[in-house]
Write the structure tokens for this entry.
Amino acid sequence: MQSKERQSLSLPGPLMFLVMLALLAVGGWLITRETALFLVPLVLAFLILCGFFIIQPNQATVITLFGRYVGSERKNGWFWTNPFTSRRRLSLRIRNFNSERLKVNDQNGNPIEIAAVIVWRVVDTARASFDVEDYTQFVGIQAETALRHLAAQYPYDHYDTTGLSLRGNPDEVAESLAKELATRLRHAGVEVLEARLSHLAYAPEIAGAMLQRQQASAIVAARQTIVEGAVGMVDQALRMLSEQDIVELDEERKAQMVSNLLVVLTSERGTQPVVNAGSLY
């Protein structure tokens, strides 16, 4: 059964401080009357003194009475509650959790190193106090578990440019990680504000081979773009020559011109032209 936070029945501290002063005054007056009853107001004043507590900004106090949850106080200020209660202070401030670099396998089975930064805060003090043993440790373990599960769902990279990957889609991957963490940490009364990968790399034993593969893929993609552009330019050149009647070429000369233009446009080095000073043929 999950716990649920509720407001505690706390009284303003200044009001109870005045009551305590009144009891002390009554006790002092009874002492002057030389009666044993002076102990009653003094004991009551001491009990009131034990019930004061202060809440700083972005903090909360969880109150229990003889093992039973009484409630939580979130408002800032000076308060008083039953002096026989136990009070535990929790921070509601936003926190960062930086996971350590984990060595895991991606969807394709490649060993990779991955780490994440998680931004979180406590939103339900009852769950954080009673439903988990240590909510800060719980956040760390669940973040590591979610990160391992995330890495197994996506490949490190997609070389065919289709589908999601850890390297190519950081925003989608971060959103998926945040959703999974929100589900896991809900039991501890923790809200995930942001989750992003802070480190992503191939494991050292395959980093060199994967770098060569990435370079080869980049070269192939670049050459493909160059060829597509060159074919378009050759097609445009032939159409303009034909439409403007600059020169009439037969099929053999067109093929030779296409070959020469493709060599010029796709060559990695500057080509040396050969000037024909005679006839076209």
Q: What stands out?
A: Helices lie at 13-32, 39-49, 125-130, 135-153, 170-185, 204-243, 251-266. The CA atoms of residues 211 and 260 lie 34 Å apart. The chain has a mean pLDDT of 82. The longest strand covers residues 190-202.
